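Moderator note: this is an archived Q&A kept for reference. The question asked for a predicted structure of one protein chain; the sequence and the answer are reproduced below.
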Amino acid sequence: MKNVKQFTQEQVDELNSKINTTEEALQWVSDNLHPKVAKASSFGAEDAVVMDIMLKINPKFRFFTLDTGRLPQETYDIIDIVSKKYNISIEVLFPDTKEVEDMVREKGMNLFYESIENRKLCCEIRKVHPMNKMLKTLDGWITGLRREQTKNRENVTMFQLDHGHGGILKINPIINWTWEQIQEYIKKNDLPYNSLLDKGYPSIGCEPCTRAVKPGEDIRAGRWWWEQGGNKECGLHIDPE
């Protein structure tokens, strides 16, 4: 199944030249893509901010999350808290049972600690495959990416063509925000957020693959901390072009 609306690079460039703020971007998305657009949420700090701004613009915006089967309890808790606070239904995606069973049977429960190849396989089966199925039904998807998160994201724009997902429009409404701005917005608006943030987890993934960061460490240092190097992604945000 192909996405119905296909955007050209020229259209994306025009959007990036005309739209500067988070609110403007999300208003455009609401006017032009809803309901065939959704926010992917792992329920970190960025997601709390984007969801709040989205729902102030359009209370019927759609949200989805990936239940990998290995999430921290705190993440399940905040999913329920957010659903009740905003009176919304969050679409929960699950990996294919047989794919998970075959992987665990062949490589073990904690295969990800043994090699980068194994870790990427686990991310692919538990996260990327269910995500891909969802994106095939949409014209656009909204993220909580910020430029300062990793080196891979330094050149990301507010609107972009996601060539890794069939050229779907990818919207990064808080791409220019700093970590300080995120924290300030959460406090100022008294938003519900994942309690792991107060325990030193500025970036939250699966429970066995995420640890608290130490003082002075990069905010993504707690993700796959046993791997060497800074190019640590799960595959959801890798653009083959």
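Archived answer notes: The radius of gyration is 17 Å.
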